[in-house]
Structure formats: structure tokens, C-alpha cells
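Section 3.1: Structural characterization of target chains.
Under the original work plan, the team committed to producing a structural model for every single-chain target entering the pipeline before any wet-lab resources were allocated. The record below documents one such target. The sequence was received from the expression subgroup and is listed exactly as submitted; it comprises 279 residues.
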Amino acid sequence: MKVYPFKIPKPENNALMYQEDIELVFYDKLHQHDEIQISFIEKGNGTLLVSDRISSYSKNDIFIFGSNVPHAFKSDKTSIEASKMLSLFFTKTSFGSSFFELSEFLEMKDFFSKSLQGLVVKTNKTKIIGLFLKLKEATKLERFILFLEIIKAISVSETAPLSNFVYTKKYSDLEGKRMRTIFEFTIENAHQIIKLEDIANVANMTKNAFCKYFKKRTNKTYVSFLTEVRIENACTFLKSNEDFSIAEIAFKSGFNNISNFNRKFKEVKKMTPISYRNL
């Protein structure tokens, strides 16, 4: 199996695949696959990377990743409890090339177009979680019916995009490995000074070539992406470390200037660090 991109292993003649992941650390390599993925986080928390954007995940979150949307889960390594994720995998043509084009599925049309950016479900979660929890003991027919109910419930729920940009081309193995290396290095070292020369060397490119390459594939500069990673790390500190001052969190997240931290935080989160902590 190729790490990136990779294929979802599934039994022959199974159009719909149900999977349970129970691990201390979820699969944390940036990857993409042809299948659309709907996942429910039953246990665990950590960082979620989708295309050009980094955010967090926690218990009871529900995510949708469209076909070939690059994504990675990086579990909180300090957790001693195993994380658990329940997922469904399928393609738009799993049940026939025109199955989802039938008039009966008209209300689900937006589901497929919106999934190309990745989605997080904001409302109606109790119902969707209840349907997910029935999947394990269900027969294949019952699982298929539950799957349609889940998509229907998501289609009428409020959702938010997980990324801002859709890169329509499928990554080659070389591109996938390079982007994965860039993201992993950034996430692991965001608290330190990272110069453009440093990350360009990681990607085995010149600085100018790297800047153009990254902007083309994410629709943002590397500096913007690095700032978002640092802000997300700061959010984690704000939520879990009440003893740290705002200044301490700024420096631990990779900012060497408290004024710059406050300004960038407000740009990304639309509120001040203090307001975020109070929430």
C-alpha cells in the first residue's frame, strides 16, 4: 500500500465500507483516497490538517472528506486513552454511475459539492451520532439504510468547510511525499524559528521555487500557513493550560512578539486570545 496517495482496502463486492480505528495515535500521515469519508470521533482529540488549513478535533466531532481531499489526524500524544473513530467510505459511483443522480436524491446534491472542501457538522449531531453507533451491529442491508439516513441528516444540518481551497489535481506520489514532508516538518517545528530557506531545503527546492510551488497548491503563502499552525497550537494551550499567561503561550507557540501574536490571533480567530480563553 502506498502511503500517499493510498487506496482504502475493502472486501470484494463491498460498495460501502465501515471501519473502526482504535489507536493511541490515529493515522497521522497526510494522505488522500478516491473514497468519500464520513467520520465520527467517539473518543480522542488532536490536530486535523485538511488541504490548506489546520484545525482541531475532539470527542463527538463529525467530519466529511471528499474524494482525494488531503487530510491527516495527529492525535494528542499526551493522552493515555486510546482514540476511537468510526468511518464510512464510499464513492459517488459505488452503487452505480447514476445512483445519486436519481431525483429521489436531489436534496443530497449539495453534500457532494460541499465535501470537496471537507466539512465539519455543526448541528443535528445527536441524531447522526445515534445512527453511527448502530452501524457496528447492523447487517449489510441495515448498514446501507443507515448510511443513507446519515447522508440525509448531514444534508439538512449546518456545516462549515474544513479548507478554503480545492486543489483539483490528484497528487502524484512525489508531490504527495513532498507536501507531507512540508506539513509534518511545519507542525513538529512551528514553535521554533522557521526561515523560508529552511523549509525550502526540507522540500529540496530553491526558496523562490518553493514559494511558488506551495502557493499554487494551497492558495496561500507558506508564512500564512505557518501562522495558522502556530495560532492553532496557541488555542490548544489556551484551552488546556490556564496557568500560562498570554505572553507565555505566544512564545511557546512560536511568536517572539506579543503584539504580533495578538494581531495575528484576531485575524485568524476573529477574537482576542483572552476572549477565546474565556469561551
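The chain has two domains: 17-161, 190-278.
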